[in-house]
Amino acid sequence: MKNTRVAVDVGGTFTDVCIMDETTGAIRIEKTSSTPDDPMVAILNGIDQGGIDLSEVSMFSHGTTVATNALITRNLARSAMICTEGFRDVVEIRRANKEDLWDTYKDVAKPYIPRRDRLTVRECVDANGTVLEKLDEEEALRIANILKKRKVASVAVCFMNSYTNGANEERMRDILLSVMPDVPVSISSQVLPEIFEHERFSTTMANAVVSPSVVDYVERLEGKLSDGGYERDLLLLHTGGGVMTPASVKDFAARLAGSGIAAGAIASRFIGNLCGFDNSIGFDMGGTSTDVSLVYEGKSRVTKDWYIEYGYPIRFPSIEVLTIGAGGGSLAWKDEGGSLRNGPQSAGAFPGPACYKNGNEVATNTDANVVLGRLGTSLAGGKITLDPALAEASVRETVAEPFGMELHEAAEAIVAVANANMANAVRLLSISRGYDPRDFALVAFGGAGALHGAAIARELSIPTVIIPPNPGVTSALGCLLVDIQHDFSDSFMAAAADTKPEDVEAAFERLEAMAAERLKHEGVAPKDIVMQRTVEMMYQGQWRALAVAAPSKVTDIDSLIDAFHNEHQREFNFRRDDAPVSIFRVGLTATGMVPKAELQSHEVKKNTPTTDNTRDVWFDGKAHTAMIFERDDLTAGATFDGPAIVEQFDSTTVIPPNTTAEVDKYMNILIRVQE
């Protein structure tokens, strides 16, 4: 019996390995240093350190940063784009907007594919999908030979109006493959068959440029796992909150951009639901950044408006995650106006915080927490020892002396600025979207999330904080909780009042046939397939659409219109019931259900733990004597008041004064924050 599941999440500092026994639900963890030059090395190291027998593994799931890092660093193989004649500059013209409207000196980055490698060919399809001019095959063949001589590693094909009829793009792909059979070709009518040419071209371009590196990485990792005895598909987490197999990666490589971030959001949703909270906010604080996600009524917010680099949208559906430069390694600094700032600059994995003894002398959040006694002198089970003297020196030189503060006052100021930054991120994803944080629980995880979670909750009046059993590897756990999932969409532009239900139903049936075929290709049995429909709608005259759930069989349009009015009211706080509504697009999420292993449950016995281990911990300008617990010593049903510190292999939990902690049957710590 193969009864072990393994999930791996690659972070900037550590690579986390989560190992679950399917029979008991017991989880053990392994952490190893990340290897940015080749993430696979750290994964294999983690497998060795964890003593994992790959022949006994029933599922191996992985959240990868390969696509994200390739786009951020622009370490991309040479790629080409082929466009309709006259339209090769669509991705350079973009939307003509800027990330900072008032900074006239900050230019938007250049496209991933330079102009010299964006070629054109004669063809023409009108907005109704009628082929007005077939592809000039002689010119197409000439272009294919040019690209072969240039030794391009991938090609994006983006023709105008191909979302209505992809015949010319498909023929261009066939010609390219006849000349360069081993070069991946991305065509926009397959990658993103939607109106708005810039978004379609940009997504296809991103898909093409990351394809060589992602496919190479996946093939190498798949080969190493197979050599070790793993016999099933490698599952790769994508931004939509599901996993895909290597068979789909070849066509949709850009779906893996941001995959590691989505893992944390998935785990946060699962843990929140497990604790009885349909509304929860995920707070994933690592060494370099903090990721915030939101779950409302048991469902994660999903967006299509995201990018890795501003100006070049990737329009695949993605769990909405807001990332800011605030982490354990974020540096404290003084700005030109004389104010204390925190991040986004980071000490990184090396040299890391000053207390890591690797030569950094600038104070970080980790150093401040050491000075305040909130963090002990060892991490990762003793693999990393912290030097309090170096932490104190960094805080004194970076903040205390420049601002005329006492040492602990300076350390609290560093943490307060960091907390304010992170609380603002939560506000952006909640209050600004019409959600009241007081109606949510905060799921705090990541290496540093449990250190700051209670303070963030108090700042936002969130009543409950949930600390998972293994906060530092919770993102890796998320990789174990997902299903195979693909998203499909098709343009459907019509006035809602004039639309027949059978036409919408026919559009959904076409998407469902495509979805069933792809999941069949990935080995999913028909009984394990679940289809979820959405219709994107807007008031006539708008160009941004809102998605509403559609029934398994569309029998009337009025119910869809009503659902749109309600969603518009919730999202934007107004509705116009008398205004005409347009249908913009139909969407389908096709899920291949993967059997889930249950987390281990424990018998709850009410108890109040005690300990002789205490130390001074600073809160609100004064030292408090705090109990120091080992997480493994706490049992289900344990309750205790703050101030207290809970230490474990992968994280440290701070329970401040005026809070109460309780351990539930799944070994989560629930912190109740008093007003």
Automatic annotation (TrEMBL):
Residues 200-487 form the Hydantoinase A/oxoprolinase domain. Residues 501-666 form the Acetophenone carboxylase-like C-terminal domain. One of its GO terms (cellular component) is cytosol. It comes from Roseobacter denitrificans (strain ATCC 33942 / OCh 114). Transmembrane segments: none annotated. This is Hydantoin utilization protein A, putative. One of its GO terms (biological process) is glutathione metabolic process. InterPro entries: ACX-like_C, ATPase_NBD, Hydant_A_N, Hydantoinase_A, Oxoprolinase-like. The lineage of its organism: Bacteria, Pseudomonadati, Pseudomonadota, Alphaproteobacteria, Rhodobacterales. GO terms for molecular function: 5-oxoprolinase (ATP-hydrolyzing) activity. The gene is hyuA.
